Amino acid sequence: MSDTTKESGIESAEGIDTEGLSPAVLASAGSVALALYFYYVRGDKQRGQFVGFWPVTILAMASYFKLEEIKQMLAGDDE
């Protein structure tokens, strides 16, 4: 690996958000656990499958809002 590639990798790594797990990730993990609980422990397969769709929706919404935030930041730089 060349030095320039290594330096650009370090620069991009510094721009990564280091706050830890976001609330959306925690909510998604919780809903996966809840879906498994309903499906296997309570035996309510229909409710378990329904709750199992929540993580995808939560993460999709979080991604959308993050992209909108980035879009607004970039639009502010153009002015």
Structure summarized in a few sentences:
By secondary structure, the protein is mainly α. It has one domain. It has helices at residues 3-14, 23-41, 45-52, 54-78.
How far apart are the first and last residues' alpha carbons, in Å?
37 Å
Give the % helix: over 70%
Task: Label the structural class.
Answer: mainly alpha
Largest β sheet strand count, sense and barrel closure? none
Catalogue the unreliable spans: 7-13
Note the quaternary state here: single chain
- The value of Rg in angstroms is 19 Å
Number of strands: 0
- β-sheet strand percentage: under 5%
Count the helices. How many?
4
Spell the H/E element sequence.
Answer: HHHH
Mean pLDDT, all residues = 83
- In total, the number of domains comes to 1
How would you describe the shape? elongated
Keywords: Membrane, Transmembrane, Transmembrane helix
